[in-house]
Amino acid sequence: MAIACVTGEKRQGKSFLFLICCALAGIMPHGIDSPKNLFPAITLSLLLGIYGLKVVLMAVSKVEKSPVAFSEDEELPSVDVLVSAKDEEAVIGRLVKRLISIRYPKNKLKILIIDDGSQDRTLNILEGLKHECSNLQVICRSKASRGGKSGALNHALEKAHGEWVFILDADADFHEDILLRVVPFAQKGKWGAVQLRKAVVNSKRNLLTCCQSMEMAMDAFIQQGRQSLGGVVELRGNGALLNRKVLDNCGGFNEETVTDDLDLSFRLLIAGSSIGILWDPPIHEEAVETFSALLRQRQRWAEGGLQRFFDYWPFLVSNRLNAAQHFDLGSFFLLQYALPVVSFIDLITSIFTKSFPVFWPLSFVAFSMSGLALYRGCRRRIALGPALPYPTPLNLIMSIIYLSHWFFVIPLITIKMAFMSKNLVWAKTVHSGD
To answer: Per-domain residue ranges for the chain?
Structure first.
């Protein structure tokens, strides 16, 4: 069943209502005598903790082997590689050279790179490389074009006619036989889309990039566990393989959101199309190297994550989803989005009332499950891609502390969305290419 892109109407009102509900949840227990005021947090901790543990254990017990690469002589479907590039002179040349070396029947592969109003040398570099790649098509959009990355990808779809669409970011790197592995995997599993694990190439640059590398491993690991329990798998943008018919059935990419991948994940889910998650081979990408860049990136991710829940909630609570999907979505919405806001309100209330926070049991469970997933994810065997940081006690402690930034970012974005009218701005992540 198809589900079209939504325009994101009344997001501010929905954000305000969400904030009010979280505020009430964080304040009301303080009016109850201790230890009775811990009852809601302990109840949720047991419920969500048991489910989180099952997710982690299922991810461990159902480890998928890296799919065997098919031969280029096999009967393979046509694939369009789409890349939206804006001010990417540091990395775009490397990406094109990697795409030139990719193993796939040339008559079945088309590469479309959209220069989305770049102000640097991105377009000049692309034009200079066209003669080296016969199946490369460079598409230009003006700086005034609307829709951000989603608009650029939709523009490219008008010129793409392959059976599958492979979405890459400009900083992507990959094994040369990546399509010979992921395309057959998608066909065999009858997936509407497949998301590759994201592997950080600069994990040794500093502590921040190391933590991001561990976080990406944790994310893919948890997604595999959620999938094993019949839950929800989400796209992560870079390294996403999409069935073209399924994508068209969902209305393409939504130009009214700041995270095209998260939005499309929900439309695929509502339309009844499954997303597969593949550990090996991964897609390689850069992690941001400064805390200020991290906060900018995570604010956009948080805003897009909340937008999709506000936009599609009537479908998410309908019978289009089964019981396992409802429970999985509800659990991770509470842990990822509601808990940080409630905990923030709980802390502020504790300071004013000179009392002890009451939602610490739920926060303890959330961080404990994250720590276990970090450990298990980074201990997983990898056949291809950059090595994962080893989960030493110090690395685990620092990564868990690092994950606490979400307890600042989510409340901040919720308050902004509730009180400030928003013009959509697609803030890109700067890539260094080092």
So the answer is: 10-434
Q: Which fold has domain 10-434?
A: Spore Coat Polysaccharide Biosynthesis Protein SpsA; Chain A (3.90.550)
Nearest to 337 by CA among 8, 18, 1: 18
Instruction: Look up the pTM and report it.
Output: 0.91
- Among all chains, which residue has been given the structure tokens 């700086």? 143
Reading the block at residue 31, the tokens are 């009016």
Kindly report, residue by residue over 357-401, the tens digit of the pLDDT. 999 999 999 999 999 999 999 998 887 888 999 999 999 999 999
Q: Evaluate whether 202 touches 434 at the Cβ level (below 8 Å).
A: yes
The pLDDT of residue 414: 96
- Better-predicted residue by pLDDT, 212 or 423: 212
